[in-house]
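User: Run a structure prediction on this.
Assistant: Running it now.
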Amino acid sequence: MASKEVSSAKQNDKTIDFWDTFYKDLNTNVNANEEQPSNNNDLEWIVADKPVVLDKILSLFPITRQPSIHILEIGCGVSQLSRSLLERMIRQQEDGKAHHVYEFVSTDVSLVCLQHNRDRDAAYIASLPDAATLTYTELNVVKELPACQMHKYDAILDKGTCDTFLFRSKRTQKGSASHAPLLKPLLNNVHRLLRSGCKAKYIIISPRSKLKSVRDFNGFVSVNRTKMSTDFLGDAVLVK
């Protein structure tokens, strides 16, 4: 039953084409203004990846004795969130605060934005130490997942994906379902992707003060909200 729900609620080609066009136009605008100093924080949704933001997110990561930490970002767009977090984690390791192998997998449905990210971060990725990896990979998080992805990740980052699905979803009968149409397959797949037998976490960065669909989802042991107020960055709510 669960796999049928996932496949029936998949994002269609029209939606993926929309995002491809969006990121093509974005790249065109960025290239047209390349003579001006650029700041990737201008391309960050919800909240910029300033140190105070990165440290708050890292504080929510599960504590594990496993030698490797696997982090998945869903709906990355052209954000540098995964890269910024990895940079900070490597710095902590160099300071002797942690000793792990870090594997970041940043995903999206748009091949255009993924290629943009690969080109942007090629030099950085090539310079990474052996104990760290960052890859940009296609993933439609509301489709049926390959078996190799199941129960693999210690943490899943969601900066705007859940919000996007909530915005897009329209119920034919208000109040007839506890979850909007695309939210149930999203949350089911997040639950499948998170590693079992440990305190794996789904971390949502959202401007919403409440995410009822997440709160009411039966797959999570607990849902906690953390309000993060940052100067001139706006507010973000992290749901772990």
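Residues 1-9, 232-240 have pLDDT under 50 and may be disordered.
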